[in-house]
Amino acid sequence: MRKNYFYLIIPLALFAISFASALALSSRGDFVLKQLASTLNVSSDAPPQKLSEEELVSMVKPAVVRIMVRAEVEASIPLFRVSFKDFTVKTVPNQKSIKISTPIDISGSGFVVNPDGYILTNAHVVSDMTIKKKILAPFILLAINYDLSSFSKEDAKNLEKKTEQEGLEFGKRILDYAVEESSFTFKTKKIVVLNPTSLGTTREKILNEGFTAEVVSVNDNFYKDDKDVAILKIAEKNLPSLRLGSGDKLSVGGQVYVFGFPSNAELNNNNLLESTFTKGLVNAFKNSQNTDFKIFQTDAKISTGSSGGPLFDTDGQVAGLVTFKTSSENQSNGDNFAFAVPAEIAKTVLSNSFIINDDGIYGAHLKAGLLLLRDKHCKDAITEFELAKSVNKKFGVARYVDPYIEKCNVLISSGLSIDSKWDEFMVKVRSLGMLAWALFAAGIFLVVILGIGITILLKRLKKDN
After folding, report:
1. Membrane spanning segments where (predicted)?
2. 294 and 238 share a domain?
3. Both 161 and 209 in a single domain?
């Protein structure tokens, strides 16, 4: 009897030794075991994946808009003098004011923060103060040059002793004085958010096909406190929208992305509606003028027209609003930096205006579809992509979503889409590889041999008994 049990143990031992040896000899042993565990639905927690740059562009671009301001202004400007010796500014008595009438055109960027048509941009893009500054700038410069031309060497040395901050404060006083002493009549002023799907071939036609915007909130003191934020409203619904994140996650050396409409990227009128995507690093955090918050400095490329566009972190969150760039003088010296106010400033402005920041259905369904596509659940992904496309057609989301639908259709037609438990099982089995199949076949062969051996032994035992 002991001999018969010995015969029963031998095949079992051979099977165990053979299978263990095969796994030990295979450099993919661990991989095979993991794949088998996965096939048997033994899952592990994985951290959420970040959006790729391509996916981030698809998520953001439909919500980024171009803003055009056009005004016709009459102004009456008195003759005034400035003195850098005692930092004073005053009008020249018994002199007639200069009367002018001038057209003003301003271009900027913005982005939707609520699907009901609410748009964030910079205050300096839409503020009346910007227009007044543009009109007064040549007169202020003339007064400054007139004063400096009479400086002696001693006067120049005394001026050099003044701090940069003192110079900046005096510049603001000059501007405030000139604005207060002058008068402005806005014969017309129109703020337009360009229609992203306009087919206009001229600037005028594109402008006429845009959406008229009203100003909900604007900080006219942006040049004093750096809180360069404004809110616009257009009469459109169900728009692609972006959720504000936090600037606290940014760090020096971290990568950021900028979206906007830089004017120096325009080749012709056909490019007026195509926003630009650039990236760079956070170079520094600078104090605002009142030192109550930090301004981000980045080397991402921007130019006039980029103002008001969103600045994103690598998590795909709006971390700030692009607001201005280094001066032309600094750029000629090799400096080319952009600056952005943190998203927290914009959140406060929205809250004060009782506006809820909502990313709407576009972002939610597009992101859900992208995650499903990554896992090759293509039928469900297509459903999400179609829901994402159901937003306002004027904002042209189809060209960003359709490529992903096409990818899904290719996977479905090639049999690689995973839309059922059977599809999932077959894909995982196919992913095991030739070595795993060889091990699996060897195991099956050993099991068959083992079964035959056990059957024979059991018959012998029964016969002996």
Report:
1. 434-458
2. yes
3. yes
